[in-house]
Amino acid sequence: MESPPPPTEPKRLSLVDRLPERDEPWYPAFDDHFRNFTDLFDQGSRSQSTVEQARTYGLGLLSIEGRKSMEPIAERTTTPYHRTQYFITGAVWSPEAVQLRHTAILAKMFATEDGVFSLDDEGDPKKGNDSAGVTRQYCGNRGKEENCQVGVCLSYIRPHPSRYADMVSFGMAMRLYLNEARAADMDHRERTHIPDEVEYEPKWQIGLDQIDRVLPLNVPHQAVVADADYGRVADFRRGLRERKEAYVLGVQPSQTQILLEGEKEPRTCAEVARTLPESAWRKLTWSKGTKGDLVMEVARVRATVSEKGHPTTEEDWVLFERRTNETKAYLAWGLDGLSLRAQVRLVRARWGIELWFEHAKSELGLDQFEGRSWPGWHHNVSMVMLDHGYLMIQRTKGKGKDGKPLPTLPAVKRATEHRVVAELMDRVIADEDKGRREKLAITALEVMGRPPKLTADGHLFVSKDWRDYLDAG
Q1: Centroid of chain to Cα 184
Q2: What positions does the domain Transposase IS701-like DDE occupy (predicted)?
């Protein structure tokens, strides 16, 4: 009689397999996304190390709560700090190339003819004067002058046809702004490694440069949108018209002059708005928010923009928005075929860039970078964009099944932490250094919401058996 086969060893599941199952269809797959960029990091004599550091830094930005500056990222990923620092400040890879590749990938997935290019800048308050571009200047997120760095960003916004929160947004280009004084300060340029070819450019010109960079990608879009800091600049609007880029731009009502058909003298937008008959105003529902309909009280007129009291060749729709305490104005060019409601939706689409800034900061630490050099700032920003793109892809994989809203990007970020836990636990198992194992184990347990497992004498329980950690607590 043939003897029975010996019992087989139970299948050793990978750590990823052992993680709690999730109902969401957007389970993280960071490596699949990162492979699209590996050739861009494969540069110079230390190329393999640079590729590895890029992946590690990307996971570090996605990982657990805590600061997302270089030193904490190096500590959490058990990477020697000098390697992390070199990857960000000294390695030879192009942030512009990463940003363009990121734009091409996400545009292919998300861009539609009703999307918009949104332009804005974001200030990051800083102490001291040693970081590239830092000086006392207007800081948008503080609403006043402050010692800060300012980055100019071009983002893509795809509005949702009926649900505002389900818009898709991603950064396409971001560059540090140098005011005239900093651009001329040779000592500052040398200390912060600002390239010789970088000269002073006003923010609106940087914006046009960024648009020129992405136009060859043929990203579908309907218009360029921006607030009054950009819209008030006649040269910026002229630059867009020369590029045949339709736009909806905020302007300063008390300073922008327009000439209405049949009138002889131009008036400011504020003066025109005050004299419009009540019948000219309409309350339009332009989307749905989490608490109901989103409504805007608006009017529009056809007018010619004037400069220094004289009419120009710029003919626009002028949109007025009436709020409780103020009236705002916008110039819409190249969009004559759109209804008032459609133009209003473009006005509101601009706010998608604010959501991009918010998520880049709160989830990926955009405002926590502590490096001082020009290359370091742009390298970090590009990695934040790469990671944000990954999160946006994961967010939309569910596509709002059964009419449900898409998950929020912060919720998607929480899901990615399970992948990071798996990687940390793999390192716990493999690491021969007890001190590092303890740090990694504590980090992984924190992410899983489990308390550290202690020995009888009060020390951290350290094991190379992954099942002990997953069962901890």
Answers
A1: 30
A2: 52-291
For 23, what's the count of Cα atoms within 13 Å in the CB-facing half-sphere?
A: 2
461: left (phi over 0), alpha (psi -120 to 50) or beta: beta
Query: From CA 220, how far away is CA 224, in angstroms rounded?
Result: 12
pTM of the model: 0.83
Q: Does 46 map to a domain?
A: no
Mean pLDDT of 413-436: 67
- From CA 459, how far away is CA 452, in angstroms rounded? 10
Residue 358: give the domain boundaries.
Answer: 95-373+392-406
Number of domains in the chain: 1
Which of 98-112, 192-206, 282-296 has the least mean pLDDT?
282-296
In-domain check, residue 364: yes
**Mean pLDDT, residues 350-357 taken together:** 88
Residue 29 lies in a domain: no
Reading the block at residue 408, the tokens are 């929020």
Instruction: Give the pairing type, strands 292-307 and 310-322.
Output: antiparallel
Token pair of 222, please?
Answer: 């309907």
Q: What are phi and psi of 205, to 5 degrees?
A: -70, -40
Helix (H) or strand (E) holding 309: none
- Condensed to tens digits (0 to 9), the pLDDT of residues 390-420 reads 999 988 876 655 567 788 888 788 776 666 6
